[in-house]
Amino acid sequence: MRTIGNLLWLVLAGFWLALGYAAAGLLLCITIIGIPFGIQAFKLALFSLWPFGRAVVRSPEGGCLEVGFNLLWLLVFGWGLFLAHIAAGLALCITIIGIPFGIQAFKLSVLALWPFGRSVVNSAGRAAGSFAVPADPTRR
After folding, report:
1. 70-109 pLDDT, tens per residue?
2. Contacts of 88 (CB under 8 A, 6+ apart)
3. Domain ranges in the chain?
């Protein structure tokens, strides 16, 4: 069911969202100062392509630089993206069929509002793109 939802999301909204975020990321990466913000735009682009079965979680590392970047992101980009995702999520939740897509829009809104210090993880809880290493059965 997750794959069907992701394919529908990709066709209806995901491709266009990812294209917009990727274009913004490229424009931000042109300057050295904009590179951290471009990386966050690419994070949003990848998450918007295939969101079902993934979640946004808080990363354990951080600091004052993370808070400063998040505040700058919030003032320049975040509030507009957040409101757009909330409006889209509410509109999608009007119908029963649109509720799963509205939930994905709400998950994107969290990442769009405060992207630094957040990670996208699979539903199993491990980081997306990482491999699980089995435990050593000989250790006690």
Report:
1. 888 888 878 888 888 888 889 888 988 888 888 888 888 8
2. 13, 102, 105
3. 2-121
